[in-house]
Amino acid sequence: MKIQGEGHIFKRFDQEMSHLHSVVLDMGKLAVQQLADANGTLEKADVDAAHQVITNDARLNALDIQADNEITNIIARRQPMAKDLREIIAVGKIVADLERAGDEARKIAGLTIRFFKTSENPPRQEILEDIYALSDFVMEMLTMSMKSFDDLDLALAGNVLNDSLKLDNKLQSTIRRLSTFIMEDARNVGHFVDIVLGIRALERFGGHAKNIAGHIVFIKSGEDVRHAGLEDILARIQA
Q: All domains of the chain, ordered by start, with CATH?
């Protein structure tokens, strides 16, 4: 027997989930744009633009609050069960990762201010090239994660997880390269710590992209793979 109004309730739930989905996609696009803009401020030594990137982080924070409110309201009104509840829980974790990714992008803009406003001897662009290359790589990781989220594509999620290993190798190479700059010119010592902090921010940005890929696996399979090894996760995806 069909409960009166049941179809309407299901329709409203689908509409609310669709809207939440759109908000999360907007967060992903904004997080990637924030890092791209932060990179631009470093390349152009544009302190004013860097301040604008930091200000724009409030937009991502607002979407974070909006998504959290929508999740709370959906759970309170619809009392979802099983797969629906699993998806909502995972979406909440994706939202948290995207907000934190935005925080890491803001730190790159902070480097611009530190290097070109407060420092009398800013670093040469040659020294910053690795930051740009790493930024491009982690932006692609997050873009791929969000595409995986949009399509619930486990193959794409697997690609992001594979890229996380490549990111580890890139980070090690970058640190070695920075060390050579220090040995070649002692004047670079003053920038070393700040640049390393920027690199670590990019590592965490990529880490959030990896986390999101793991959340996609959870949505699709119901398995929590946060603490599983990469080979184990990929085996589950391919099963």
A: 6-238 (1.20.58.220)
